[in-house]
Amino acid sequence: MAVEFVGMIRTADTSEIRPPSGPAVDRDYLRRFAQAHEEAGFDRVLIGYHSWDADGFAVASYAAAHTERLGFLLAHRPGFVAPSLAARKLATVDQLIGGRLAVHVISGASDTEQRRDGDYADKAARYRRTDEYLDVVRRVWASDEPVDHEGEFYRLAGARSEVKPVNGALPIYFGGSSADAYRVGGKHADVFALWGEPLAETAEQIAAVRKAATEHGRNPDDLGFSVSFRPIIGRTDAEAWERAHGILNTITSRTSGESGAMLAFPAAERGVGSQRLLDAAGRGEVHDRALWTAPARATGAAGNSTALVGSPETVAEALLDYVDIGVTTLLIRGYEPLEDVVDWGRDLLPLVRQELAKR
Hints:
Elements: E1 4-9, H1 27-40, E2 44-47, H2 56-65, E3 71-76, H3 83-96, E4 101-105, H4 111-116, H5 123-142, E5 147-150, E6 155-159, E7 172-175, H6 179-188, E8 191-195, H7 199-215, E9 224-229, E10 232-233, H8 237-254, H9 272-283, E11 286-287, E12 291-292, H10 294-299, E13 307-310, H11 312-324, E14 329-332, H12 337-347, H13 349-358
Parallel strand pairs: 1-2, 1-14, 2-3, 3-4, 4-7, 7-8, 8-9, 9-14, 10-13
Antiparallel strand pairs: 5-6, 11-12, 12-13
Helix pairs in contact: 1-2, 1-12, 3-5, 5-6, 6-7, 11-13
């Protein structure tokens, strides 16, 4: 029984508790951060997409040049380049880094953020565009002949690519919690990504996406599921909770709930996933074995923001609870980004894998 561990890298040492203090692109830090994930035993690292951040294609290429085994999950928003060009760009990077690339497709929750890069399509249109975009990308990868396409958003005549991904196509991860996300992700995703909700709600979302996959004629058992958390560990549960409350105090000192400067977009434009995290926080601060929702409430759930708190043994058991309901990928990132990766590689990932090896 195998479970994929995915971390997250950035080009600078910053988080909700660490304000930026150096250059936006710190090559030495990026190199050390990627190498730390490889040494810790992570399978992949996510490279996020923001309207103000470094270009992910370049980041993946640089980090891959300084690692040997680590895979890269490149966040990508359809709509800013043509799908035929995206197919070539993704395939080129995958060839150059030895088949270690996957793509995480995000349609975009916030109108405000999309408009920063010139995209004025509404959210429903963005999902329709993503559906069409992925159809074209897959056709370009699969075909040795020129591809013609005429749809709602794209019109292409004779699109082709001499370069293909190493394995013919890249794994497609897909994020979202809305009905549109289930519909489009159920059609296209190899792995459907969710934020860290309580177990019961996560199981409901898994069932909804599997249903959508079935409606597209897919075998739902072929679809993987990712869940994202912010683990906070200590030598004991008590030590972990002491650390967790210190982190929360720092977060709340930097932001004031929904109006905080750390939010990437207006509260009115939260996606369904963010609202679901806030709903969970409204029902209680601690859920299940170790799920802590207070950081989501403090940041307005502007990103994956729920934590798992406890000793390495407690957090490992909590992660395995999600595996038991069908999760295949565990995406974890820290509030002390580089230091947490080192700790998890020593204390957390081995525990999860040892238990899985027994099953």
